[in-house]
Design the sequence.
């Protein structure tokens, strides 16, 4: 039985399309002075269902919009001076991150999840 609270940050587990653009996306963000990292990448259906059930996500594991389950989404989060994950970055930093992501075909916040600034997904055929 998988641990539904466990966060998978391994880009190797993402779909090939995301794996292909992720390193350059992260590198360009850091070159622009944004201290960021991949907070969560792939999710099991079970974890997605857990997040839906606990109100942390709007979609369940079988929803085609569950991009993390399909390996096509990454949550990119800032890292503070004490090496802690932080979502409390200035809006201009989030805006810059979104601008860079768009260059790699990553949809900032997604079309469904506009409130989630940290969420980036690859819209694929
Ligand atoms: Zn996400």
Sequence:
């Amino acid at each position: 039985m998988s641990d539904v609270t466990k966060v998978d940050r391994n880009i190797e587990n993402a779909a090939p399309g995301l794996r292909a653009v992720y390193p350059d996306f992260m590198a360009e963000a850091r070159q622009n002075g944004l201290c960021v990292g991949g907070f969560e990448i792939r999710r099991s259906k079970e974890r997605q269902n857990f997040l839906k059930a606990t109100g942390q996500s709007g979609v369940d594991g079988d929803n085609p919009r569950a991009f993390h389950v399909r390996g096509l989404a990454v949550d990119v989060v800032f890292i503070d001076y004490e090496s802690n994950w932080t979502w409390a970055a200035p809006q201009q930093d989030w805006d810059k991150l979104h601008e860079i992501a768009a260059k790699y075909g990553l949809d900032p916040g997604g079309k469904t999840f506009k409130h989630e600034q940290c969420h980036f997904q690859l819209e694929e055929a």
User: Anything to note?
Assistant: Strands lie at 36-40, 73-79, 85-86, 106-108, 119-122.
